[in-house]
Amino acid sequence: MSYQDEQAFRRWCASAEPTPWPAQVNLRGLRPLLRAELQRGLFAHTQQPRPTRWDGGAIQKLVNTCRAAGMNSLTDLAIGSSDRCVRSISGEIARELWRIYRTPADARETGMLDTEHFGVRFPRRTSCFDLTAIPQRWLRDLAWDYLAGLLQSPRCPRTASSFDNVRRGCVELGVFLAVDAPGGGHDATSLRGEHMRRFVADQRRRERDRLPSLGITKAGGEPSMVSATTRGLVFNSVRTVMRDALDGGVADRLGLDRQFVTALPAGEGLPVRTRRPFSDEVARALADETNLRRLAEHHDPADHGVRDIWETLIATGRRIGEVLEVRWDCLGRYGGLAMFWHDQTKVGNFDAAIRIPERVYGRLEARQAKTLERFTARHGYRPTGEQRARLALFPSPNRNPHGTVSLSKEWFYGPFRAWVAELDLGHPVPHQARHTLATNLLRHGATLTHIRRYLGQVSDRMAEHYVHLAHSDLEQVLQHVWVAGPGTANPGELLTTDTTPLTQAEAQALAIDLSRRSTPAEGGFCTFQPVVDGGTCPWNLDCHNCDKFVLSGADLLYWRRKREQWRLLAEGASDDATADYLHQHFEPTARAIDGLEKALAGLGLLDDALALDLRKPQDYFHRVWSTAFRARDLTAACAEAGETNGPSEAG
User: Fold this and answer.
1) Cα 129–Cα 134–Cα 138 angle in degrees, nearest 5
2) Element (H, E) at 166
3) Which of the chain's ends, N or C, has fewer CB atoms near its CB within 10 Å?
4) Which among 124, 129, 168 has a CA at the least distance from the CA of 148?
């Protein structure tokens, strides 16, 4: 290489941009700190669960800009005039450097809370929470300290919703104090209970008159409207922060009046939004083949699986997140039965399986093939077994190179709401499919325990949000669980046809039969017809050794007491021979009790039977015992039952 002016050549070498090379970034000529910052930013970008796509040319352009400006650090870069890609790359690297260059105490001074400082990253959210919208420094510090303590506590939430609620509540209070309180509320010692009471009154008035919020805006800049839900969230979150400051002694150090803290209403419960099942008209429209085809063709042209998700929701009654987040290997046949594996714990444990219809199994199986084809087309090879286990069945098309991230709820709601609006069905929501399935299960004879287990609820009380089952209905079903008594050849044998729940019509018909063909006895019912008709018992009322004596679910506690009495007698026997005799004498009865407990457990009614005791005198005034029927109606019903069931079921 030749040149005439060496100095000019050296200046040109220092200022000329490097020649671009594929998959390479030239960092020569950068200051050491700046070079280390860029290297750290590139590495951190590769560790993101859902990294954005960075073009090599845009990265080199950012490097060239920094080299030409002779900067020492990326924090000195002014990127107002740069293009969009350079601004995006430099902004993400700057956020990573912000976390490195600042301690949590430094972040508190700036009004920013970075969850990564505490090792927490909420799903589908950035790690930085901006609290600078809270005007008062003392209130902003209270919110920051409370959220930081929450991040370090064992009860750290799984999602960022509680953090958003605290920020919203403190912003609402801070903006109101800036307008209403003396000195803009910056001096905590000047605040009194009347200021908090005026804030409460203002929130309730805005809720009543549907006025916009003072400090909260939507994504597009439009003010957010105050509703019963937002008002409850604001009250609860502000009270939580204030109480935490009061308990920790921070309120006393600030000089905050105690009445200001306690004036906020306690126990502001959020309005309970109950979902109704789909009406017959809406259910038919949402399951119509023509409408489903329109959902797939017009609202999901890229075929991401909106129809498959919706049909799975209808058939299984799962939560929307449980269907969206399933893995590729969520299907399987066990004993020839089609099973659907999903996560009911909300923490990523895909260990719950339910049976699904063959139609849904076929659709999901076809979706598996489409997901594999798209992965192969993108990467040029079929995924291995380990990759398939991590692969999402409904992968997101954005920032998801490995296909492990599922579609979000917000993405699904978009095409679904547009589809429902076209059908002009009102405002049905996907979660109503869960209520509809629970109601159908109840209508076909399932008990509350069966519904709870199928829906994946923790307790019967949670399942009551989806179905309403009166306690009297449980008692009626308990009366229909019959097992043979201790005097029969097979004590404890279930006398009903099977352990499947009875429908309402079957239960009513059986109750009519039992009222005519049985009579209450000590610890059970007598089914010997001469005695039922009013005759004398030929066995001198020796019911417990009679093969005509049966036990019902209402008698479980009675027989449990009997078992305890015999055990106490055996333990207090004078010798072993007497104790063995007592045990052998009661052994048939013990088998009957065990059979009754197994029958009740099979129907999911064991807990209800343990809570019911119809052998107490005051319980004879219960509706089950006080309800009467006209004789001619009973006669007609029994006659119809006899013609239908035949003589084999009449005995």
Assistant:
1) 105
2) helix 161-180
3) N
4) 129
Phi, psi of 214 (to 5 degrees): -80, -35
Whole-number pLDDT of residue 310: 94
Rounded distance, CA 144 to CA 348, Å? 29
Instruction: State the chain's maximal CA–CA distance in angstroms.
Output: 135
Residue 40, both tokens: 């750290």
Instruction: Give CA–CA dist 269/573, Å, rounded.
Output: 59
Between helix 84-101 and helix 56-69 the angle, nearest 10°, is 70
Sheet holding 352-355, edge to edge: 331-334, 337-342, 352-355
Q: Are 433 and 317 in contact (CB under 8 A)?
A: yes
Query: Of the candidates 210, 208, 229, 226, which has an alpha carbon nearest to the alpha carbon of residue 218?
Result: 226
- Averaged pLDDT for residues 621-646: 38
| CA dihedral of residues 599, 601, 607, 608 (deg, nearest 10) | -40
Distance, C-alpha 91 to centroid of its chain: 35
Nearest of 178, 176, 242, 170 to residue 204 by alpha carbon: 176
Helix 504-517 vs helix 471-478: crossing angle, to nearest 10: 60
Alpha carbons 365 and 357: distance in angstroms, whole number: 12
Task: Report d(CA 81, CA 63) in Å as an integer.
Answer: 15
Q: Tell me the pLDDT tens digit for each residue of 560-603.
A: 788 778 777 877 777 878 877 877 777 777 777 776 676 666 65
Rounded distance between C-alpha atoms, residue 484 and residue 466, angstroms? 36
Strand partners, 354: 340
Amino acid at 200: V
Name the one residue in this structure whose structure tokens are 């005519």.
Answer: 516
- Angle between the N-to-C axes of helices 448-455 and 432-443, in degrees from 0 to 180, rounded to the nearest 10: 150
Cα–Cα distance, 350 to 533 (Å, whole number):
58
